[in-house]
Amino acid sequence: MPLGSDSLLADQLAKLVAERVGAIIGPTVEAGDSNVLNDFPGTITIRPESLKAYLGDIVHSLLTWGFTRILFINGHAGNVPIINQIVHQLRGQHSDVQAAQIDCWRFIKAQDHGISETGKLANGHAGEIGTSVLLHLHPELVHQDKIADEVPDYEDAYPEIVKYGRLSSISKSGVVGSPSFATVEKGELLVQHSVDRIVQFLHDVWDIKPL
User: Which ranges of the chain would DSSP assign to H, the alpha helix?
Assistant: First the structure.
């Protein structure tokens, strides 16, 4: 899997949704709060304070030019709380602004509907779902000869408790799951279902009609 998989997915989802509803795509913020991945070579991490300030300035600029509906297509779970903070502050200052966030990989998992085969680890880091999606979107960037499964010998006895740690504590390679089960066809279905769902939300909740 390539570095930048998260932003590659976010970019493509934004493009596909924009084509369906006539939206304008804002700038991609390619690096975020990746602290949990810092033990893996190539990781670039932006401090939450820096990311919040930078992303907040982008949003402020959009508001200045009259945008009132902002959908964040967020490819990385570490950025979720930062975007939450920005939106809560935004809503407190601008009651006419609508905002929502797509947490891409969690969102795609919710559209699985029996497509994946590897159970609860299907959406693990660089697992079946992630690899399928990248095989569909950017097959030239996936080195299939290097695909290797890594199923952690770890069972979370307290999943209801939020815990903090590094991915390296459960995975030597960064893989969590079985990417060997990934296929282009699965990735295509997962992306299509996700785009359809986002477009339905925009129609039903924000009254944005497809073209």
Answer: 5-21, 48-64, 80-93, 104-110, 128-137, 184-206
pTM of the model: 0.93
75 falls in which pLDDT band (50, 70, 90)? very high
Cβ atoms 129, 105 nearer than 8 A: yes
In terms of Cβ atoms closer than 10 Å to its own Cβ (0-12, 13-18, 19+), residue 22 is exposed
Residues 6+ away with beta carbon under 8 Å from 182: 128, 129, 130, 131, 132, 135, 147
Q: What is the rounded CA–CA span in Å between residue 102 and residue 49?
A: 21
**In contact, 127 and 177? CB cutoff 8 Å:** yes
